[in-house]
C-alpha cells in the first residue's frame, strides 16, 4: 500500500515536470510579428515581465521536481525508511517546505501571467490600454494553452504537497503535540 | 498543549480576518480624480477586473474564516473531540479542503492584482500601455499597502491550513495507509 502511494507520487511528479516544461516552452517560444501602424511589430513573451518570470519559475520548479523524483527513486531502490527519525525527520519537514514553496511560487507566477493575458485580451479603455489579442490572435491562443498547462501543473503540485504533508504528519501522535507516534504508542 | 494550538489557530484566523477586511477596504475605497488630457479622469478599483475580483474574494474568505472561528469557539465551549471518527472525520477533511481553497483563491487573486499594479507602475511601452502611477500616485500607494496586507493575510491562511492538515493527518497510522491510529494502535 505504501509502495502504491510512492508510485502515485512519482507519477504525479513526472507529470508535473512534463507539464511545467511544456508551459515554459509554450510561453518561451511564443512570438508573432505583425504589420501594425505602418511598421512591423513583434509580440513576444519577454516584453511582459510576468511571462518572463513564469518561464524561469516553471523551469526551476520542474528542475526541483526532477531532483526530488530521482531522489525518491534512488531511495526506493535502497533502504525504505518507514519511520524517519532525527535527521530524516528534518529532511521530511524541509521537503514539505520546499514542496509548498514550489506550489505557491508556480501558482502565483501563473496567476500573474493570467492577469496580464486578461488585460491583453480585454484591454482597459479607461487607462487607454488597448486590447492586443485581436491583432496577435495566434500569440494569445498559444498563451492560453500555456496557462492551462500551467494551472494543471499547479493542481498536480498541490496533490504532491498533500501527499508529502500526509506522510510527514501521520508520524505524529494524535494526542500529544509534536510527539512522534513510535514514542507515544 | 492541544489548548495552546487551538488558541494559536483562533488567533491566526482572527488576524487573517482583520487583514483580509483591511485589504478589501483599502482596495475598495481607493480612487483618485485627476485633470489629465483636458478632462477630469478618475482612477478607481472597479475599472480593473482583478481588483474587483480581489475585493469580493477577500470579503468571502474573511467571512469563511469568521464562520470557522465562531464554529471553533462554540466547539471549544462544548465537548472537545480529541479523536474524530465517522462524520467528524469527513468534516475535518471538508474543513481542510475549504481552508486550501480559501488560501489558493486569495493568493491567486492577490497575485493577479499585483501583476495589474506592476503594469500600472511600469507600463509596457511595446504594447503602448502607458504607466499610470506617475499620474495617480496616491492611488498606487494605497494599492501597494492593500496588496502587502493581502499577502500577509495569505501567509496566515497558509499557516492555518498547515495546522488543519497537521491535526487531521496525525490521526492516521504511519504504517498502514488511510487507517486511523485508534484502530491500528
Automatic annotation (TrEMBL), chains A, B:
Residues 7-156 form the Casparian strip membrane protein domain. InterPro entries: CASP/CASPL (IPR006459), CASP_dom (IPR006702). The keyword Membrane applies. It comes from Rosa chinensis (China rose). The lineage of its organism: Eukaryota, Viridiplantae, Streptophyta, Embryophyta, Tracheophyta. This is CASP-like protein. GO terms for cellular component: plasma membrane. Coiled coil: none annotated. It is found in: Cell membrane. It holds the Pfam family CASP_dom. Homodimer and heterodimers.
Amino acid at each position: 500500500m505504501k509502495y502504491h502511494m510512492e508510485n502515485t507520487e512519482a507519477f504525479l511528479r513526472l507529470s508535473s515536470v512534463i507539464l511545467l516544461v511544456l508551459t515554459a516552452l509554450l510561453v518561451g517560444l511564443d512570438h508573432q510579428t505583425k504589420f501594425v501602424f505602418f511598421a512591423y511589430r513583434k509580440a513576444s513573451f519577454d516584453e511582459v515581465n510576468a511571462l518572463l518570470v513564469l518561464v524561469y519559475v516553471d523551469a526551476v520548479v520542474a528542475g526541483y521536481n526532477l531532483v526530488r523524483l530521482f531522489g525518491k527513486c534512488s531511495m526506493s531502490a535502497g533502504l525504505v525508511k518507514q519511520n524517519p527519525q532525527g535527521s530524516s525527520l528534518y529532511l521530511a519537514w524541509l521537503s514539505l517546505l520546499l514542496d509548498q514553496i514550489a506550489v505557491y511560487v508556480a501558482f502565483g507566477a501563473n496567476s500573474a501571467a493570467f492577469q496580464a493575458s486578461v488585460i491583453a485580451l480585454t484591454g482597459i479603455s479607461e487607462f487607454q490600454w488597448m486590447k492586443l489579442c485581436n491583432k496577435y490572435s495566434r500569440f494569445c491562443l498559444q498563451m492560453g494553452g500555456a496557462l492551462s498547462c500551467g494551472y494543471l501543473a499547479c493542481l498536480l503540485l498541490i496533490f504532491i504537497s498533500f501527499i508529502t504533508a500526509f506522510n510527514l504528519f501521520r508520524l505524529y501522535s494524535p494526542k500529544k503535540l509534536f510527539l512522534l507516534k513510535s514514542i507515544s504508542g
